[in-house]
Amino acid sequence: MEVIKVLLAALLCISQVAATCPESEQIHCGSSDSCTRIRYICDGDNDCGDYSDEESGICRAWRNEYCERGSVRCRRMGDTNCVTISRYCEISDPPCEGDLDRRLCQMLREEKLRPLEEIILPSEVSVVRQSSVEEAEALGEEFLEKINATISHPDCPQFYTRVGDRCLSVFFFGKVNWGEARSFCKAIGGDLVTLHDGAEKFHELVHLLREHHITTDFWVGGNLKNETDGWRWVDGTPMEMGTPFWSIRSTRDCQPRTYTYGTNSTRVANEGTCYNYEQAPHTPAEGHCAALNYENYFFMSDEKCLELKSPLCVYPKKV
């Protein structure tokens, strides 16, 4: 059984190799053998099935305020025109000048969708290769410190560390979808972590992640199966909405806020003041699984369940 657990941990780190797409102007999806057309990237539809064509980092770089989606400004030989991102990356002698993130070009050349933070440009490779043995060893020591702090403690079973009176397992080095994350937690004797014990448990968890400089996004044990039941933890208890758990997002269009007074009376807050922020989760729902994202300072947000994040597990018995 212990061997199986070790293998499960190792499997989380395995990456898939992209195959060549059968047609031009196609790109390989992030975690499957299928391909999608480049023009479908960030069009709002889950064309790949794993949301790799709608990954937030790619979409921030893919869209701009000057040209339509999938196109970008190309300044060249005294003229400025909107061209497709594929064309922008191909033009040479002279190349386009503009604000396009060159990692998109590298992604298109590799013919595989993947988060931009994982892409190293060729011009940066030489810098990476010049890194000293001492620097590599320092990074190894930092990784080992994080491992020891997140999956080892004398008070907890193997793969768990003590956080307050609970044993948690923080597999920051592997990324899977929400369902796979929960199955992994069960395979090592636990389940995805829940936060219904109050803000103190939430604070203890976030303190651990920040103290050890963990910058990974994590799945937690909350989901929305239907609007009638609302958001619930995996043990069936309702999830508490609002502060201090859920993150806020900026919005382009401001909206007034309302609150319920008594049983049936709804009132507008602050004389209808218009606010450019809304609190997760979305209404109507967009993502149906709960996560703690580094981008949101580990406040909880609603995410698409097939996105790839790390499992955050809790052992059922308190210590």
Secondary-structure topology with pairs:
Blueprint: H1 2-11, E1 26-28, E2 35-37, H2 56-62, E3 71-76, E4 79-84, H3 85-90, H4 102-110, H5 122-129, H6 133-150, E5 161-163, E6 166-170, H7 178-187, E7 191-192, H8 199-211, E8 218-223, E9 232-233, E10 248-256, E11 258-261, E12 265-268, E13 274-279, E14 289-292, E15 300-303, E16 310-314
Parallel strand pairs: 8-16
Antiparallel strand pairs: 1-2, 3-4, 5-6, 6-16, 7-16, 8-9, 8-14, 10-13, 11-12, 14-15
Plain-language structure description:
This protein has 319 residues and is of the alpha+beta class. It is built from 8 helices and 16 strands. The strands form 5 sheets. Strands 5, 6, 7, 8, 9, 14, 15 and 16 form an 8-stranded mixed β-sheet that branches. The N terminus is likely disordered.
Largest sheet: 8 strands, mixed
CATH architecture of the largest domain: Roll
Number of strands: 16
User: Rg, please?
Assistant: 23 Å
Strand content: 15-25%
Mean pLDDT: 84
End-to-end gap: 23 Å
At the first level of CATH, the class of the largest domain is Alpha Beta
Helix content percent band:
25-40%
Secondary-structure-derived class: alpha+beta
Number of helices: 8
Secondary-structure element series: HEEHEEHHHHEEHEHEEEEEEEEE
Q: What's the structural domain tally?
A: 2
What's the CATH topology label of the largest domain? Mannose-Binding Protein A, Chain A
General form: globular
Q: Let me know the CATH homologous superfamily of the largest domain.
A: Mannose-Binding Protein A, subunit A
- Weakly predicted, low-confidence segments: 1-7, 9-19
